[in-house]
Design goal:
Blueprint: E1 5-10, H1 12-15, E2 20-21, E3 24-25, H2 28-33, E4 41-44, H3 52-65, E5 70-74, H4 77-80, H5 87-103, E6 107-112, H6 116-120, H7 124-147, E7 151-154, H8 176-192, H9 212-251, H10 254-277
Parallel strand pairs: 1-4, 1-5, 5-6, 6-7
Antiparallel strand pairs: 2-3
Helix pairs in contact: 3-5, 5-7, 5-10, 7-9, 7-10, 9-10
Organism: Streptomyces bottropensis ATCC 25435
Keywords: Hydrolase
Pfam family, one: Lipase_GDSL_2
Length: about 280
């Protein structure tokens, strides 16, 4: 029996930001790979900053060429941080990505994630629009994971979000402990499904946590650059969304914004169903 092939797709979370080991990034997927079974071959295609379009247009073809037995697709947060956010497009891309693996009988791993506004501790008027977007992405991921038979991890809520020991200094990415928790939770799901046969990843870090000085240095260098890139693209629109949030709150009509977002998600998923049911043209 040949060793399993595991390919990871996605963004900085899967690339391993927050879990540096020996001058490189490791991350939850690499930790999980060690527990899948003897000789598992692992390739990490995730790239920091990737959106659903990047996974569909770049990472997917490379992943399929490797003929994996298991593939993880954890992506979507970066889509919510762009002014071009479109839940219809996100849903269509994820459906195509998930479907490509299902057609090849690949075990697909997916996850829903916390919203960045809450994790960053933004003021309510700024955080709520981002939370609404992330809820939309999570709803789509939930629905499509069920549709395509994925092994799905609910990681968008729970005590782990407020345990600072699990998160890196940027508040957006897990630290080593957090990556280990992510890997452990996936390992439990895969063990229950009879897919993972190796030992579970260790829960405790194998390396000392970064010092406060190292964390401040990250914020002053890479962290500042990250914020600057997002502000250039997102901030003008986010301020507009925040102003609308304040107006609706003052009028007591905030529920309309939630309802509008829910309708958009329902329409996006319905469009995929209609497309699947459309007869092929000879």
């Amino acid at each position: 029996m040949r060793a399993a092939r595991f390919v990871a797709l996605g963004d900085s979370l899967t690339e391993g930001v927050g879990d540096p080991v020996g001058g490189r990034r490791r991350g939850w997927a690499a930790l999980l790979a060690d527990g899948l079974g003897p000789g598992t071959r692992f390739v990490n295609l995730a790239v920091s900053g990737a959106r659903t379009r990047d996974v569909l247009d770049g990472q997917l073809a490379a992943a399929l060429a490797l003929r994996p037995d298991i593939a993880s697709v954890v992506v979507g947060v970066n889509d919510t941080l762009r002014r071009t956010f479109d839940i219809h497009a996100v849903a269509a891309r994820l459906d195509e990505i998930y479907g490509a693996f299902r057609e090849r009988d690949v075990v697909l791993l997916t996850a829903c994630l916390p919203d960045p506004g809450t994790m960053l501790g933004l003021p309510g008027a700024l955080a709520r629009p981002l939370a609404r977007r992330q809820r939309a992405v999570n709803t789509v991921v939930h629905a499509l994971s069920e549709r395509h038979g994925a092994v799905h991890l609910h990681a968008s809520e729970g005590a782990w979000l407020t345990d600072r020991a699990l998160w890196s200094v940027d508040r957006l990415h897990p630290g080593e402990r957090g990556h280990r928790q992510f890997a452990l939770r996936f390992h439990a799901l895969l063990t229950g499904a009879g897919i993972a046969t190796g030992p579970a990843p260790a829960a405790e870090p194998g390396s000392p946590a970064p010092t406060r000085g190292a964390g401040l240095w990250w914020l002053a260098t890479a962290g500042t650059a990250w914020v600057a890139r997002r502000c250039t693209d997102l901030l003008p629109q986010l301020l507009t969304l925040a102003a609308a949030e304040v107006r609706h709150t003052a009028r007591g009509t905030s529920a309309r914004l939630d309802l509008s977002a829910s309708h958009a998600v329902a329409a996006a998923l319905a469009a995929l169903t209609v497309a699947d049911q459309s007869p092929e043209v000879a």
